[in-house]
Amino acid sequence: GQQLNQSPQSMFIQEGEDVSMNCTSSSIFNTWLWYKQEPGEGPVLLIALYKAGELTSNGRLTAQFGITRKDSFLNISASIPSDVGIYFCAGQGSGGSNYKLTFGKGTLLTVNP
Amino acid sequence: KAGVTQTPRYLIKTRGQQVTLSCSPISGHRSVSWYQQTPGQGLQFLFEYFSETQRNKGNFPGRFSGRQFSNSRSEMNVSTLELGDSALYLCASRPAGLADTQYFGPGTRLTVL
Question: How far apart are CA A89 and CA A100, in angstroms?
């Protein structure tokens, strides 16, 4: 089945630093999504990408949909302590009835004030 | 608008028992998906319901089942619980026609002893 490789698995950074994480897939996806999950909560959607090559920003977050449709990255600029959490990438396949999301294993981000 | 709600938030069961989890989607959302989250396997898709019909199913044994009611509320059932079923079970809803924007609930933490 489809698998997503997300890296790095964890990051420990100082407040103010920029962060970058990425996902690669063995299959093509039509949509890439980035979620953040905090303890005791479900994942919260950060950014959605719909077209190959698309670059989208949401505040300090920027994400890109790779040209090959098999990869995506997320950048966080000027990190702050509340950025702490687990970041997941998720891919969605072709349309029709295939609405399920395939998730990466997550990147645990720790920000040192 | 109220978000996705899941009940109960925490549950402890013993092996061999069965359990039913409930999910109320965001008002107006007709699609409900269920995911299992564990430290080892990450987030894995269980199934999706739309208008009371199961539309997609993940690679889980038949002990995992679900249903959706006419008001879009959904339940999932796990029979003959095993230790490995201990996980966070997440429900996500999305509006009809928007295949990508899934909104997650806080999850139900199931512990099997």
Answer: 13
